[in-house]
Design goal:
4 helices, 360 residues, single chain, 20% helix, alpha+beta
């Protein structure tokens, strides 16, 4: 069922309080009744100023919502880097702004625990290699009818034990960021630095935070570096809760910013917030955007424009029927043939020459 509202629509200008123009009291008058402001316009005055009355109705809205938005890092392409073992910073190799690759050493940390971990791995590796050689020897002797089957079983048990210990130590070094090569490829002349741990970047990206200096004590709670990759970014926009039904999941969106006035960035909506901000009564809507040339920087401001499908109905009136005054918007609703009542409204999406009335 359609809802109809008679709205004053002026083609040649409207003489209303505070809007300027020459007022002729014998042709139209202004009145305030019970706090409601009204305008009375005679038929002669209406003809002179080209007054038109438009009947508002529910119509499909096909346009777009514009929301203030902020660029934020894509958290799937962000990494905090630090040491899982306590010690002191031995060397730092990067600074803020440096481009790094996955596996690149950002700093080294020196500590007794690191030396102990490395020694434990090397000992377990040596024991595994010895037990494997002993097992192979006993199998060969048994095949040549020289050794006993009992000796083979005993060697197998020793090897299984050594292998289990090696795997445990191997998992331990990997858990702190070391690889087998980091431990086994150390040169003899580097023995005095065997207690150092290389701290590597987990991803390709740019160093945006460095929180350590040489000699600083660090442990598992220290966030030494923050690395982000901005080949794609997230853009968070704020929409009013009343606009939520208009937005479909996985819809396309565009982002514009004053930084690049002639550039439009295209992306897609990937998430619609599940909570409403208590103060602003807005919901966060997130889009994912490609970022060629790293043009979009985290915390950059702009506008997120989201298309609205035509399957949503709203009260639509001509744009020229909305009067802006002292930061508020009004329309004049006809109550009699010559009387119009001034009512505050909240305008919404503009579609061509029409505009949506969200409230009022």
């Amino acid at each position: 069922m359609h809802k109809h509202i008679a709205v004053l629509f002026l083609l040649a200008g409207l003489l209303v309080p505070g809007c300027g123009g020459e007022s002729k009291h014998d042709e139209h008058t202004d009145a305030h009744t019970d706090g409601v402001e009204t305008v009375t316009v005679t038929k002669k005055s209406a003809a002179e100023i080209g007054l038109t009355v438009y009947t508002a109705s529910m119509q499909p809205v096909a346009g777009g919502l514009t929301a203030p938005a902020t660029v934020v890092p894509n958290q799937d392409l962000e990494a905090h880097v630090g040491s899982l073992v306590q010690g002191r910073v031995y060397r730092v190799f990067v600074n803020v702004g440096d481009a790094v690759t996955a596996g690149q050493v950002l700093m080294t940390v020196e500590g007794l625990d690191i030396g102990t971990i490395k020694a434990g791995f090397l000992k377990a590796k040596a024991s595994r290699d010895y037990a494997r050689t002993a097992l192979e020897r006993q199998k060969k002797l048994f095949d040549e009818k020289i050794g006993s089957y009992k000796a083979v079983l005993e060697s197998q048990a020793e090897y299984d034990k050594a292998l289990a210990e090696y795997k445990a130590e191997d998992r331990r070094i990997h858990s702190v960021g070391l690889t087998d090569e980091d431990v086994t490829n150390e040169k003899e002349g580097e023995a005095h630095t065997a207690g150092t741990l290389p701290i590597k970047s987990h991803i390709d990206g740019i160093v945006v935070e460095r929180n350590v200096v040489v000699g600083q004590y660090v442990d598992a709670t220290t966030n030494a570096f923050r690395v982000i990759n901005t080949r794609t970014v997230w853009i968070d926009g704020q929409i009013y809760e009343k606009d939520l039904p208009r937005i479909g999941a996985k819809t396309t969106a565009v982002f514009t910013t004053a930084t690049y006035p002639n550039r439009v960035f295209t992306g897609r909506i990937i998430n619609i917030g599940q909570t409403v901000d208590e103060r602003s009564r807005t919901i966060t809507i997130r889009g994912e955007f490609a970022n060629p040339g790293a043009m979009l920087k985290p915390q950059m401001f702009g506008e997120l424009k989201i298309p609205v499908g035509a399957n949503v109905d709203a009260v639509m009136i001509p744009v020229e029927a909305v009067v802006s005054e002292t930061g508020r918007q009004y329309v004049f609703v006809r109550t009699t043939d010559t009387t119009f009542e001034k009512r505050a409204v909240v305008a919404g999406t503009s579609v061509g020459t029409m505009i949506e009335i969200r409230d009022g």
